[in-house]
């Protein structure tokens, strides 16, 4: 495996892309230390309504959107939703307010479409030219990111993006499909 970038090194890539950043997320759970308290409160029925305000990620996506450099993503989720997926769906409203376009695709449909869901695969496609493959440990914690511009890898991720985006639902449409508001 190649040298893995840390979170700080990865942040630099998000500030440097020129046209677009797309993420394909296929994990049902992420173990993110900075989310633990907010997740706990959400699961206890006391969601942290101020959690997103002022966070660097939202500032970054807001700035990029204003510059015409959109962040988009497709989240592949198992239905019925697990605790983390319900939490992430709730949090997505703040990502969307900050300028991200997040879509949802059911895992069974994603598998039928040939998307890399088993084992889970998470990656960013930056400017249609660079792939950042995210690695996680056995406890779903971020372990680092591998960057490649290998033409075959980039082409595969571009094709996955096209298929995923074509079939994914907006957050609102996905909520309706679940019977929610």
UniProtKB/TrEMBL annotation:
Residues 9-175 form the DUF6879 domain. It comes from the Bacteria. Pfam families: DUF6879 (PF21806). InterPro entries: DUF6879 (IPR049244). This is DUF6879 domain-containing protein. It comes from Thermomonospora curvata (strain ATCC 19995 / DSM 43183 / JCM 3096 / KCTC 9072 / NBRC 15933 / NCIMB 10081 / Henssen B9).
